[in-house]
Amino acid sequence: MEDLFTSRLKLRALTLKDAPFIYELVTDPDWLTYIGDKGVHNIDDAKSYIINGPQTMYQQYGFGLLVVETIEHKKPLGLCGLLQRDNLTMPDIGFAYLPAARGQGFATEAAQAVIDYAFKQLNVEHLAGITTPHNQASIKLLQKLGFVFVGSHQMSQDSAHSNLYQRTKTA
Hints:
The chain is α+β, with helices and mostly antiparallel strands. It has helices at residues 19-26, 29-34, 43-61, 106-120, 136-144, and strands at 4-5, 9-13, 65-70, 76-83, 92-97, 126-131, 148-154, 161-168. Helices cover 33% and strands 28% of the residues. The model has no long low-confidence stretch (mean pLDDT 95). A hairpin with an 8-residue loop joins strand 4 and strand 5 (92-97). The protein has an eight-stranded mixed β-sheet with strand order 1-2-3-4-5-6-8-7. It has a single domain, classed as Gcn5-related N-acetyltransferase (GNAT) (Aminopeptidase, 3-Layer(aba) Sandwich), CATH 3.40.630.30.
């Protein structure tokens, strides 16, 4: 998985050194509300999450969630990248940020870099965006990035319905 850069940000693959950051992010109340409990309750759980989630996806698909950090301070702000879900035919853009990093344009900037990479480097034709119906910040971001609502989608038999958005590659 190659690093991606914008004027302010570097997006890079997760390593086990990112476990404290992952622990902080996935235990944030907004993560738990909008994404769900990933079973990360300590640093060892965070390492397992990195290995069994993003690192496995890098190996299987050549993409996955990336750490978003500022070029200047190299401090992790959040995650942004592509996920391949079993019940979707196209990659899904995912993103989450620590509270201190929200509202500064980082999510838009990082997501646009991921979209450009997907369409230009990976030659993906369509991208999905999944969010809970009440996550207004994510809905607003997806719409700002050119995603269009296509309907309701259930990720698994025991999960609530999510909003499914899609963006198609343009010439």
